[in-house]
Amino acid sequence: LITEQADIPLSRGAEMKGKCGTNESELEISWLEQAYTLKLFFLKEGHNTSWGQEAFWRLSRIQFTYDTAERTYFKDAVSPGKHTASSHRLSALVTPAGKSYECQAQQTISLISSDHQKSVQLLLSEVRLQPFDITADFVFSEEHKCPVDQREQLEETLPLILGLILGLVIVITLCVYHIHHKLTANQVQIPRDRSQYKHMG
């Protein structure tokens, strides 16, 4: 059994182009003389909720073309040539309309390859995207953080919140004890030692 694995990073000198529409947008990234081409397709949609019409955008389709004859990442590829990997019924990076998508955490999207002997996975990390409602060039709208980042942010702030609550409870307890002690200090104290009581005749 011969297995081959290639990690293909997005190189800095990649060429980018795209199409921006009202409800459909497309981003195409190619590198190493178009040996690798990644196409991302976005859709803007709306649905009715109890609060009215709610719009959002999502990554609806991915297409990745790769050439196993290219020698940078494929050294000894079996049956080298061009192949295409695509997503199947994708709904990813769902974001409210008018906002940008941001995610620092790594996400994995599995693609189906035209070469059935190969499995292709797209790894996304440190992503910031906005395919619709762009108000100015190179300026993102307010970010919508991915669920993983939101959970990590909560995990970072939760111990701090719990620590503040615990400290507040301790301060309140000490204040109540101090007030109670002041109020009872002026009252006549009944001796607790029974030997101090005089015997009744």
Explain how this protein is built.
Keywords: Cell membrane, Cell projection, Cytoplasmic vesicle, Endosome, Glycoprotein, Membrane, Signal, Synapse, Transmembrane, Transmembrane helix. This is Lysosome-associated membrane glycoprotein 5. Belongs to the LAMP family. It contains one helix and eleven strands. The protein is an alpha+beta fold and 201 residues long. The chain has two domains: 15-144, Porin; 146-185. A hairpin with a 5-residue loop joins strand 8 (107-113) and strand 9. The longest helix is centred in the C-terminal third of the chain and has 39 residues, at 147-185. The protein starts with 14 loop residues before the first strand and ends in a 16-residue tail after the last helix. The mean pLDDT is 83.
Which SSEs are present, and which pair or pack?
Elements (H helix, E strand, L loop, with lengths): L14 E6 L3 E8 L4 E14 L2 E16 L14 E5 L5 E5 L3 E4 L3 E7 L5 E6 L2 E3 L13 E3 L1 H39 L16
Parallel strand pairs: 7-11
Antiparallel strand pairs: 1-2, 2-3, 3-4, 4-5, 4-6, 5-8, 7-10, 8-9
Mean pLDDT level = 83
Multimeric state of these chains? Answer: single chain
Tally of separate helices: 1
CATH topology call of the largest domain: Porin
CATH class (first level) name of the largest domain: Mainly Beta
Give the fraction of residues assigned to helices.
Answer: 10-25%
- How many strand elements? 11
> Based on helices, strands and strand pairing, what is the structural class?
alpha+beta
Poorly predicted ranges = none
**What is the makeup of the main sheet?**
8 strands, antiparallel
